[in-house]
Amino acid sequence: MGLAACGPTREETSARADGGSNQPAESTATSEPAATSDAAATPDIDAVQPPAPGETEDFVRVVSVSDAGYPMFIVSVRFPDGRDDRTFLLNNEAADLGGVPPGDYEGSLAELRYTSAVEPSLIDIQVDGRSALDIDRPVSTSPDDLSVTGVLSGAEEVTQSDLPDQITVTPATGGPVTFDYFIPPELVELNGKTVTAIYAEETVDRITWMRGGNGHPPR
Hints:
mainly beta; CATH 2.40.50.140; 5-stranded mixed barrel; 3 helices; 8% helix; disordered N terminus
């Protein structure tokens, strides 16, 4: 009987010549991450939210911007549709102007949002029928003027900031009336005492948001 061959086969010899391994070679290719959309990955920083409840939106030409004592400005606008010119109050620290200085809006087209509210505007404070304020002009009166007699509060000290404080006159009967007012020394002396406030009710329009301005076209 012949003996079977015990030497290595052709395949084994070839494997030894290649370094002794017959495992498949590893792939050197690296997997690339799936491409993402820039639009999906980057938030839209220019997205504009709709007006808040109580806000009105308009497209206007800004006629003038006047400094009323920082951070307050008076903004006069003209409407393209022929409505009467209108004046707005602007608090530069409270309104969203898109980073544009208030003065850059002067003479430009702009989109703005604003609120309107009827607020009491103090004309005079009187004690025993005489003005308690050191004013250099006669106190103008009108049949439409209102008055409230009661205890003055909120005038503990002279106004120290660029914004008015709030003072209140509380009558014996009826609701209190609160005014935005720059408190002078004369009112500090009357705090806690009975006074008569002469005032008018006025509609105050306050800008809350604006876009546009010279070199910054409206969206």
